[in-house]
Amino acid sequence: MDKVDLWTLSDLATPWCIRVAVTLGVAEHMARGVTKIDELARAADCDADSLARVLRHLVDKGVFEEPADGEFALNEAARVLVEPGPLRGNLHLDGWGGRIAGAWSGLLAAVRTGRPSYEKVFGLPYWEDLDANPGLSASYDAQMKDGGRSVPDPAALVDDDWENVHHVVDVGGGTGALLAETLRAHPHVRGTLVDLPRTVARSDEVFTSAGVADRVAVSGQSFFDPLPAGADVYLLTRLLLDWPDEPATTLLARCAEAAAPHGRVVVDGGVSPGHTPARGGLMVMILTGGRTRNLDQFGALAAKAGLRVAASGNAPSGRFIVECRPA
Ligand SMILES: C[S@@+](CC[C@H](N)C(=O)[O-])C[C@H]1O[C@@H](n2cnc3c(N)ncnc32)[C@H](O)[C@@H]1O
């Protein structure tokens, strides 16, 4: 392994400079041909000297170039910032990206207390903050839609026996991108999207543009309340890790009661194979007190919720999937 350079690893200037440049739309202005610092600052509505200092820092790190004094341009690394995809939303400080960036300042408090520290930083617990700020929740929903799945792929089953599946419920399915792709891939399947009312309200366009609107029902509700019953598959994608053990068990129990007796619960995300400690999940530790779990830890939660792990394995995309059946 190369020698670890702690100065570089602990530098906060570069991550913040990138976010400031993204939030000010600097790359887009450059792509439109605005390159002189005064014109860039005017277009971005900011101070020219300060912007130049931020851009020079990034130039030194290999993002943007300064072909002449006071003139900045895109290079290969910076061009990614004008391409479609999830990166910009994740880095944009005026939306959910700003909350995520700022939330890291609560890491110490989370470690000291063993409790999520989001409220200490932003004044409200994470989910309540989203409830209280419609612009923020819109930006969160958009980031969930584009964030991890810029090209959504259909849900995967360990056994891939989709011919036996007729009804899928996507629990906490966001604005429906995964469900839409799943229904497109399996024309005999119908789907139900369960998420908070404000989020399912944004799903129309997703289902219509995928051409599956006639096979979808939506249920704007909490997934801690009883779920639509009797479906063949209940999907929990990138969801369970948001929650500490107690609410995660309640959520799984809701799935178990709705899936009984013959349905299954498919967990995609937040569970790692094997018995060694699960990695990752630091952000949810700060935001919500959630965690990633290994298969043993997940199996224990599932058992409390009335489920047994029936199968696990990797989807074609490489994601680790766990399938449970009512015990
Ligand atoms: C991390 S996102 C995952 C979204 C989607 N499954 C995906 O993979 O893109 C978590 C989702 O849970 C939803 N959510 C949070 N609390 C909820 C609740 N109490 N009831 C229903 N949905 C909830 C959020 O609105 C969000 O869409």
UniProtKB/TrEMBL annotation:
Domain O-methyltransferase C-terminal intervals: 104-307
* Keyword Methyltransferase applies: yes
One Pfam family recorded for the sequence: Methyltransf_2
Residue span, O-methyltransferase dimerisation domain: 12-83
> Known InterPro entries for this protein?
COMT-like (IPR016461), COMT_C (IPR001077), COMT_dimerisation (IPR012967), SAM-dependent_MTases_sf (IPR029063), WH-like_DNA-bd_sf (IPR036388), WH_DNA-bd_sf (IPR036390)
Q: Which UniProt keywords apply?
A: Methyltransferase, S-adenosyl-L-methionine, Transferase
GO terms (BP aspect): methylation
Q: Which domain of life is it from?
A: Bacteria
Gene Ontology molecular functions:
O-methyltransferase activity; protein dimerization activity
In its UniProt entry, what is this protein called? Hydroxyneurosporene methyltransferase
